[in-house]
């Protein structure tokens, strides 16, 4: 039985620990900072067995070298990016097996935020780094809008019950845009109210179920007529296909940030 633990890092990063309910072994996802990880492992009596990296940005990889020095564990990460201390380059179709925990995760290529970004999915959980955020998606730093659209569609095809473990707590700001993009979406408005209540109490809003994302995340809704109309109004003309709608909605949000 999968058990995921959360470590807060920097202002709004999440470092996830993947393990099993009855075992002390864990894999560390995107350790941007080693100190809070080591502190958590020691406090909880956990034994790290691997590091999983989604992409090369420093707030996801900054703690890798120190953790490898401390624990001598393998590092899985995108084959197409420069990842510190990488021992197991992975890409689409690969499986990461954590023998000690009896867990297996499929690797998905999800370029867009960066050129080689990967996600890990298994046991009803999706570790998606900075590709899909709760109610939002990552910025296009290296890839094209077409690539990001295809990556997000790949994630949208996963079951509704999938828990989305993204790497940042951005839900409230993302929903503030989502209600502008889709003012008549009652599910989005209700989610914003709920998330405002949680954040006012300093509570976490990640993970969220993919089913809720499909209802409220504008970056998974480029096929929805209301959003298409809103994107066309922003673009000032017709948009040919859902990828163009996605690109426009991404540009629209960037213009407000
Ligand atoms: Zn990033």
In round numbers, the mean pLDDT is: 97
Helix content, binned percent: 25-40%
Low-confidence stretches: none
* Distinct ligands, ions and cofactors found in the model: zinc ion
- Tell me the major beta sheet: 6 strands, mixed
Explain what you see.
- This protein is of the alpha/beta class.
- The chain has helices at 34-44, 58-61, 64-71, 145-156, 171-181, 186-200, 210-216, 225-235, 242-256; strands spanning 2-9, 13-20, 25-29, 47-52, 75-78, 88-90, 95-98, 103-109, 118-122, 125-129, 132-133, 136-137, 163-166, 208-209.
- The strands form three sheets. It has a six-stranded mixed beta sheet.
- α4 crosses α9 and α8 packs across α9 (242-256).
- The radius of gyration is 18 Å and the shape is globular.
- The N and C termini lie far apart (39 Å).
- It binds zinc ion (ZN).
Put the structure in a nutshell.
This protein has helices at residues 34-44, 58-61, 64-71, 145-156, 171-181, 186-200, 210-216, 225-235, 242-256; strands spanning 2-9, 13-20, 25-29, 47-52, 75-78, 88-90, 95-98, 103-109, 118-122, 125-129, 132-133, 136-137, 163-166, 208-209. The protein is α/β, with parallel strands linked by helices.
